[in-house]
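Budget justification note: compute hours in this period were largely spent on complex prediction jobs such as the one shown. Inputs:
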Amino acid sequence: MAILETEQLTRKFGDFTAVNALTLNVEAGEVFGLLGPNGAGKTTTIKMLTTLLPPTAGSAQIAGLDVVKQASAVRRIIGYVPQMLSADGTLTGYENLLIFAKLYDLAREAREKRVREALSFMGLTDAADRLVRTYSGGMIRRLEIAQSMIHAPRVLFLDEPTVGLDPVARNTVWDRIGELRREYGTTIILTTHYMEEADALCNRVAIMHLGVIAAIGTPNELKQNLGGNVTLDDVFAHYTGAALEAGGNYRETFRARRTAQRLG
Amino acid sequence: MKLFEQDVLPSGLASPALPQDTVFTTVSDFVRTTLIIAELEIRKLSHDATDLLIRAVQPTLWLLIFGQVFSQIRAIPTGNLSYQSFLAPGILAQSVMFISIFYGLTVIWERDLGILQKFLVSPSPRAALVSGKALSAGVRALSQAVLIYLLSFLLGVQIDWNPLALLGVLFTVFLGAGIFATFSMIVACIVKTRERFMGIGQVLTMPLFFASNAIYPISLMPPWLQGIALVNPLTYLVDALRSLMLVGVVNVQQVLIDLLVLVLVLLVMVTIAARKYPQVVV
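Corresponding output:
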């Protein structure tokens, strides 16, 4: 059963078409990867699916709910971890979770229990009462994922979840994402630049290029299509070609580097 | 290990179907979210209140230095009030404005960080996210009010300690902080970058202050400036505070008009800000 469906989803900024007539289905329980160079339209797609950005044309449904007309209902069943640093450094880890548990209106009895369980699931129990600005990059990312999971969303959107993390921290985040899906059946949609991440985590990936899907399938299928004896990196390069250097602007670069710096 | 033990797949996952939205649930959602956002601010302040201490410097200087000098030279006719009594509510209003008018900066900051996006993806009513910030600004402004009351007491200002009057001041401080904070958030949502916001903030603050009755009566102003002062919300804030804070100035009818104007301005500001707020992430 498709939990997420888009139909000719399009977003323009002036004359520039960031996402061009995207039609996509994601099955319930899948880990789905959106790959592509900077400026391919990944983040714009995620913003439309998470109700942050209204589409210029086309439509998208999550669990049968329209992201524009039923935005409020959609918001109750999705979670989102933005690319940027989104935990509040001036609060403790516990408070970061508590505030969101309250915003999602979890019943008082369940609230405390869920916050404690989420902290322990992400290995943050000992650090719960420390200010988040003293956390390491990997801890912050795990806290952010815990925050976005506090209301048990059906679909979780992760925008570049491991950007700027060292390999150990990255592996821990991968573990947690995998376990969320296995234990919990949450559908996970993530964007990433890292092909080994897509290979390790995703059941299916879509390679986006210039606002459209250039290729879609399981990582193995995509490799087979190019003769089989290739890596996902080769697949990526094949479909996005020389555009690798063209993407990204000053603002995006600034943000990515700053996020990396903070998390590192 | 399971994340949430009580949940079973997949029925334990979040449900979009809530009890029917009624006027009651809409209002209670709004109030609940507003209070959560304000709670967030109080928790932040409880970890680090340095900002409030720094903010205390400016009103202290105005009251002690400017106030002392201008009482000495008796340049400003303030009727039967001493100049320092006249000035104290004006400086309270000024501090409320100054502490709130750069509030929009936090919106831009949280947008740049990604915190704001997470709030906007939650089902919280947009207007409540805005009014929560307005209430938070009021909490900060309250610290200024306490300080100014203390200084005024030491300076011999004729403070009205009637509990009703104090309650009135409290309410007015929240109103004023809410107005300038939401106004500032609207500006932030339009200009979207920190640099432009700081520029505009600097340009707006001083004219708002000088085109008001904070440090001199309106009657001293040239007619064109009186016109501006009459549409300046700060004027109504000062007027209400002056009536409520000082002994012997109470003019109930005028206070009610002032408060009515302030409430209306706040409603308009929250409405506009709630519409603009989601656009800041676009």
